[in-house]
Specification:
CATH superfamily of the largest domain: Type I PLP-dependent aspartate aminotransferase-like (Major domain)
CATH architecture of the largest domain: 3-Layer(aba) Sandwich
CATH topology of the largest domain: Aspartate Aminotransferase, domain 2
Distance between the termini: 23 Å
Largest sheet: 7 strands, mixed
Structural class: alpha/beta
Strand content: 5-15%
CATH class of the largest domain: Alpha Beta
Order of helices and strands: HEHHEHEHEEHEHEEHHHEEHEEEH
């Protein structure tokens, strides 16, 4: 069990060595856009003071306006990870039984197990489509990603909405939903459904992973309970400013450009990988792809060969439901993808020395 938890705690950032070409971490860009960085710099002189209620209010209102909800249905967070932590403690206090849909981001299960919450795994098989009937009726808390990390599958909005019912908390991890092709037709943020909690990150799209910022939007009663059990000053001034900025009208135009660029880069990357004989497991909807290492090659050794050539990819045998041949690749520009393909072909051309990992 401890070994299983250790695997669940592995994330992409731990697999990127110094100077590596990074396909392992799903962050868009290597720095925040200039307008956002400038807005954060303008708050530097305020850091001698504690974050204020006005700072939190601005962040709540920005999120509320973006998703068309009352500010009481918004909770700024120190990244989605804090949301999973708070929800796990919420489940433990109420004696809830959880179901986690896999393959998916593993942190929710780690947090639920930390809090002593009974967890049932709902394992989806390729092509990783989801049927709400797979979730046990006894589950009082359900966690599902949309689009799902690492499969890059986007589930229909109505399918996930069907999970919601009185007495159940339904958690939808939408960390990457802001850059899918049809965000408005895919997101449940803003939906008035019982027990719904949608978690959003502002760090992936806006290159702010080091700041830890995000928010929850959903059932006001659930969010109020989460807020009641936090430390004082749970977010700093810059985190609150980042939430407000990334949900602002100013951000909207920039987001449209990012979304279009990612879609174009993803399409080009799919074509280039397929042309090079690299197997894409399922059609991607998010800014990352699930692929397989070549048959006949030991997958662990193959990843090591890529690493020796300065290319970091995300191993996926740490996700329940996936095997060692699966790896996740972040969407990158054509020149960077070309370097990946060169390294992949060189690694593939080496004589295999072990099992293909299934």
């Amino acid at each position: 069990m401890a070994e299983d938890l250790d695997k669940l705690r592995i994330h992409g950032d731990t697999q990127v060595g110094p100077g590596a070409i990074d396909f392992a971490v799903n962050v868009h860009g290597d720095r925040p856009p200039a307008w956002l960085a400038d807005r954060l710099r303008q708050r530097i002189d305020d850091l001698a003071a504690y974050p204020t209620a006005a700072d939190e209010g601005r962040a709540r209102r920005a999120v509320a306006e973006r998703h068309g909800v009352d500010p009481g249905r918004v909770l700024p967070l120190a990244g989605s990870a804090e949301g999973f932590h708070l929800l796990a403690d919420h489940a433990a206090r109420r004696g809830l039984r959880a179901a986690v849909v896999h393959p998916s981001f593993t942190e929710p299960e780690v947090e639920l197990r930390r809090a002593g919450v009974p967890v049932t795994r709902v394992i989806l098989r390729e092509p990783y489509t989801f049927d709400p009937g797979l979730v046990p009726e006894s589950a009082d808390l359900v966690v599902v990603g949309n689009p799902t990390n690492p499969t890059s599958v986007l589930h229909p909005r109505a399918t996930l909405a069907a999970l919601c019912r009185p007495g159940r908390v339904t958690v939808v991890d939408e960390a990457f939903c802001d850059v899918v092709d049809d965000e408005g037709g895919s997101t449940l943020a803003g939906a008035d459904l019982p027990g719904l909690v949608v978690l959003r990150s502002v760090t992936k799209t806006w290159a702010l992973a080091g700041l830890r910022a995000g928010y929850a939007v959903g059932d006001a009663a659930v969010l109020a309970d989460l807020a009641a059990h936090r430390v004082h000053w749970p977010l700093g001034t810059l985190q609150l400013e980042a939430v407000a900025a990334c949900c602002s009208d100013e951000a909207s135009a920039h987001l449209d450009r990012i979304r279009r660029q990612l879609a174009a880069d993803r399409a080009a990357m799919c074509g280039a990988l397929t042309g090079a004989g690299i197997e894409i497991a399922v059609p991607p909807a998010a800014p990352f792809l699930l692929v397989r290492t070549p048959k006949g090659h030991d997958p662990h050794e193959f990843r090591a060969r890529l690493g020796a050539r300065g290319v970091a990819v995300r191993r996926c045998d740490t996700f329940p439901g996936l095997d060692p041949r699966h790896v996740r690749l972040a969407v990158r520009d054509a020149a960077t993808v070309s370097r990946l393909i060169t390294a992949w072909e060189e690694a593939r051309d080496q004589a295999p020395t072990g099992s293909d990992g299934g």
